[in-house]
Design brief:
Two copies of one chain form a homodimer.
Chain A lengths: L11 H9 L8 E7 L5 E7 L1 H10 L3 E4 L4 E4 L8 E8 L5 E8 L14 E3 L6 E3 L13 H17 L10 H7 L1 H20 L4 H21 L4 H12 L15
Parallel strand pairs in A: 1-6
Antiparallel strand pairs in A: 1-2, 3-4, 5-6, 7-8
Helix pairs in contact in A: 3-6, 5-6
Bound molecules: zinc ion (ZN) (9 copies).
One zinc ion binds next to loops of chain B.
Chain lengths: 252, 252
């Protein structure tokens, strides 16, 4: 992890952007750090003008601590920096998103994100991941939640605790690599057929869902995460508002 | 869109959860509404105890407006409600995520999300989507950013303005459905081979990236979005902390 570079002062070209922000009575805006690959909201804090300026110049998420009354670069003590790829502003200019790549866990508890507690609306209870490193109760978007479900089915099968004794379809696929590969090829063919036979959008979405699910089971069988696949895609197609990247051969 | 149901009062089982929250000097916490399928941060506002209570009871994102000094259910005038599937809390209990399914655009400008302005760190300029309905400068996570890139390649090819006269690989695939289907089947086979021939995790991630990219081009060719595919997967596998769902036949 690179040591943060403290900017000496605001560079003039940043002034226009910073002048645009609508600071609250304490001179702050909300700053939300979001994982560029998984979409996870990593943490939320506040930022003053100097913190936003530092984030834009160093590419490391920087905030203003209301309790300690000072600017802090996330990771400056733990080494768990949050590398910011681009900064976004909301319609009324008082809230920022730092779209980012975290280096290590984002939370001081060592959880991957700060949002590891879920409110149970029926019981009123707070459900927390058993271990902080677990994502059991973190807000996952659909594809990553599916990945978590597949991992749970695998764990259940390995513990011999499948629901009602009958192994899940996921467990059957994981136990039978030949069947799994047969299904991935078959679903790819069915997806192609929706185009070839002009079967319509609903069938295409359904077959794409089949293919993605089976491909994700195949990735689980090899211990590969969707985050790693996303990183490959980002390295091939991604552009960043902050890092000026050397021109790559066009891949898309 | 359902009319919001105003809860008469806090139900007792919610008190424990609400007591847990760390309200600021104005009795507020930060509330971030995030799209459950795409991961987009839709909007950020503040919530008081009554607003969080109402969100948990109605399943519709509700906030406290600091300027109007009152509780408001997002969508109560526009009809553009945000259906909340689950609520998450951060480590120091002063920030919530409403993981949600928006009904219509989240922003009052009719943009899909409020974060449609991007800071350009090299020029200091603010880049805004040409039209509010566009997601050109919204914070997209990798897979959805790739979908946007594919759509841009298609638009460039249709406008005859491909870079340097040479059509992109994406444009070639879109112009040749036979080639596109051949590639999707081939990449599915190559992904399977990483398991069959034990080629290792790096190859598996790379082939999965190939397959996902080509499948996404095939979806673009049919006008199907990754969001629609995600919705299919959520309807098959998803569970919600707020909606009590009827038991479904197990699919995973
Ligand atoms: Zn550490
Ligand atoms: Zn705002
Ligand atoms: Zn934390
Ligand atoms: Zn199928
Ligand atoms: Zn409307
Ligand atoms: Zn907090
Ligand atoms: Zn807005
Ligand atoms: Zn190939
Ligand atoms: Zn390949």
């Amino acid at each position: 992890p690179p040591p943060p570079v403290r900017p000496e002062a605001e560079v003039p070209r940043m002034a226009a952007f910073l002048d645009n922000l609508k600071w609250d009575n304490n001179g702050l805006v909300v700053a939300i750090a979001q994982h560029a690959d998984t979409g996870e909201v990593l943490m939320q804090a506040f930022a003053d003008r100097a913190a936003v300026n530092e984030t834009l110049q160093t590419g490391l998420a920087t905030f203003y601590s209301r309790s300690r009354k000072g600017r802090w670069c996330k990771g400056e003590t733990s080494g768990h920096y949050i590398k910011v790829l681009s900064v976004y502003l909301d319609c009324d200019r008082d809230s920022l998103i730092y779209l980012a790549e975290p280096i290590g866990p984002a939370c001081h508890t060592n959880a991957p994100t700060c949002y590891f507690k879920q409110a149970d609306a029926s019981s009123g209870e707070l459900r927390t991941a058993g271990e902080h490193s677990s994502r059991a109760h973190a807000p996952m978007t659909t594809l990553f939640a599916l990945e978590r479900t597949i991992a749970q089915r695998r764990a259940e099968a390995e513990a011999g605790s499948s629901t009602g004794g009958k192994p899940s379809w996921t467990a059957k696929l994981l136990a039978n690599p030949e069947l799994l590969c047969k299904k991935v090829r078959e679903e790819a063919g069915e997806l192609c057929q929706t185009l070839e036979a002009n079967e319509g959008q609903e069938r295409a979405a359904s077959e794409a869902a089949d293919l993605i699910y089976h491909a994700m089971v195949l990735l689980n069988a090899q211990g590969v995460s969707l985050e790693e696949v996303s990183k490959v895609l980002r390295s091939r197609f991604g552009t960043s508002g902050i890092e000026e990247k050397a021109a790559r051969p066009p891949k898309a």
